[in-house]
Prior knowledge:
The protein has 4 helices and 29 strands. The protein is mainly beta. The chain has a 9-stranded antiparallel β-sheet with strand order 11-12-13-14-29-23-22-17-20, with helices on one face. Strands 1-2-3-4-5 form a 5-stranded antiparallel β-sheet, with no helix packed on it. A hairpin with a 3-residue loop joins strand 13 and strand 14.
Amino acid sequence: MKTKRSRSLAVVVSRSGAIALALCACGDQSERGQMPQPNEQPRASVTRATFGQLPDGTQVESFTLTNQNGVEVRAITYGGIITSLRVPDRNGRFADVVLGYDDLAGYLTETPYFGAIVGRYGNRIAYGRFTLDGNSYSLATNNGPNHLHGGIKGFDKVVWAAEPFERADDVGVVFSYTSPDGEEGYPGNLAVQVTYALTNRNELSFEYYAVTDKPTPVNLTQHSYFNLAGDGSGDILDHRLTIYAGYFTPVDSTLIPSGAIAPVTGTPFDFRSATEIGARIEQDEEQLRYGQGYDHNFVLDRADSALAHAAQVYEPETGRLMAVYTTEPGVQFYTGNFLDGSITGKAGHVYQRRYGFCLETQHFPDSPNQPEFPATILRPGAEYRSRTEYVFGVIP
Ligand code: GLA
């Protein structure tokens, strides 16, 4: 049943995209913006360039993925960070819809995980502690008493090896990194590959793969902050969000799940039909107080681990639509509550509170300490595999 739903909605998204392209071809020159003309469609491609240098001299490269519709994704080897993502609106006008910095220095100075690959464990592990096969492990704590997003130097702050590819159906880049035994306190050498790919159907996918030589928790995700009206254009409270989740995992005041799987019915966490992000965000409700807004893991409605439609977001002014598909059981919906105007990002944009949202597909936070949650332990001989797609379209 879930698979059926995901297929039919996928068609809606791609059909909307197709309608937008058709409209665009009929409009006048100015309305077309950067939209390619019908018979001069560019070939999908990936190009490679130098982005910057770490203080120790390590080169950081950027890869620009472009599809036939002119959609363009730029990602760098530092943290696998998506530094820009340009998609058309309903009139064919392109805008960059992710938050970030213009240059490497910004990402090195201070970043709330803008655009990055997050690991070894996305989200929090209580007190940075867990036991596994009778052994106790102590991880770096970097978020109050807790471990967050892989620790002090997580996968968002390492330089990944990168191999670009151009295939018949997509273009992309494979990022690889081997996390050494003991890194940030985690057991085992963990070899990780994350493949970014862009198709001509405006699908941006992330395929995660990992193997280990000792049992270890693994929970990888992508931490892009989106604003479908365009980076720096204001807050995201008017975006309309749907999350196909009948349950969520309530947290304590340090954002560690209590262990409960709570129904969303009758709460501000019910996004099963499209609702403005801002409609209930200021309600005086304990969970919203703890998160200072939404910063919660939603338990996706799904029967199995096949790719399923998890969420979609629509921005009414521009018509831009983003659908999220994943094989993961959960998604962390975060409304940029900790952005406070102290970061000046791309093109001088000052990022105020709630100027971006994240939909981080994942296993549930603190799973190594929550026996009732889906397991996150990868063992030698097994393979970690996970896939997420962000699909872009418009509603005319
Ligand atoms: C995740 C967390 C948030 C916050 C952001 C990064 O979404 O759940 O609490 O730490 O990352 O700022």
